[in-house]
UniProtKB/TrEMBL annotation:
Residues 62-180 form the Methyltransferase domain. The keyword Methyltransferase applies. Keywords: Methyltransferase, Transferase. One of its GO terms (molecular function) is methyltransferase activity. It comes from the Bacteria. The keyword Heme does not apply. GO terms for biological process: methylation. It holds the Pfam family Methyltransf_31. This is Class I SAM-dependent methyltransferase.
């Protein structure tokens, strides 16, 4: 199986250009394999879960759509809500397709490398906390977010408390149970393994406070998932 750093982009392009509905497969050493139906990345507002709908309706001002994928959230923000939105993704192919779908402002770059711009809303959906990777990176995340947020700005981030995987009892050991490793495959190609962070509400509130951010849980999903609004003070 060949290596491919841009599994998402490869699948997004194949679906958009050739209607190829091959799923993205998700692998973790801790869990059974799962799939992401590629069509899900092209959903419209009516098809989105309530947490995502709520997040989009809470956006204001200049919005940064982090990890935009095929651009579904940005399209709604710019076309329906008439907001100024910058869509970013580390996948060059995803950005190309988002642009072809009509997203006006796009950039192929890493959130943590973004500078010299200010936003009113930082939007981080589809387990937006994931890109933080590990708990030890949270302080750096809040520091960087503050540097690109306006004083009255906000972060809209969703995540999940994975405690349900352990029968609601925190597992023993030094490793936080929400720190996972994943890789993805598509057809005969596979990505490198990467870190991905799920964080429980209580811990997110604690770490936010330590970094002088308020944290309000504004929406809960049906399965331990939630939407948080984080504001600097």
């Amino acid at each position: 199986m060949g290596k491919n750093k841009d599994i998402f982009g490869t699948a997004i392009r194949a679906y958009f250009e050739n209607k190829d509905e091959t799923d993205i497969e998700v692998h973790s050493p801790d869990f059974e394999d799962d799939v992401i139906p590629i069509s899900y990345l092209f959903r419209d507002f009516d098809e989105m879960p309530e947490i995502e709908k709520t997040a989009l309706e809470l956006c204001f001002g200049k919005v940064l759509d982090v990890g935009c994928g095929a651009g579904s959230h940005s399209l709604y923000l710019q076309d329906e809500l008439k907001l100024d939105c910058l869509a970013i993704d580390t996948s060059e192919a995803a950005i190309e397709i988002a642009r072809k779908r009509g997203v006006k402002n796009t950039s192929n770059q890493d959130f943590f490398q973004l500078k010299d711009e200010r936003f009113d809303t930082i939007l981080m959906l589809m387990n937006g906390s994931g890109i933080i990777g590990k708990l030890e990176n949270l302080q750096g995340f809040f520091t960087h977010a503050r540097s690109i947020l306006n004083e009255t700005g906000q972060i809209l981030m969703d995540s999940s408390d994975l405690i349900f995987l352990f029968d609601d009892e925190v597992p023993e050991g030094n490793h936080y149970y929400g720190e996972l490793k994943f890789s993805m495959s598509y057809k005969n190609e596979r990505s490198e393994e990467f870190d991905w962070l799920y964080i429980d509400e209580k811990l997110l509130k604690k770490r936010a406070s330590e970094n002088k951010f308020s944290c309000e849980i504004v929406k809960k999903g049906s399965h331990y998932d939630y939407l948080a609004v984080l504001k600097p003070y």
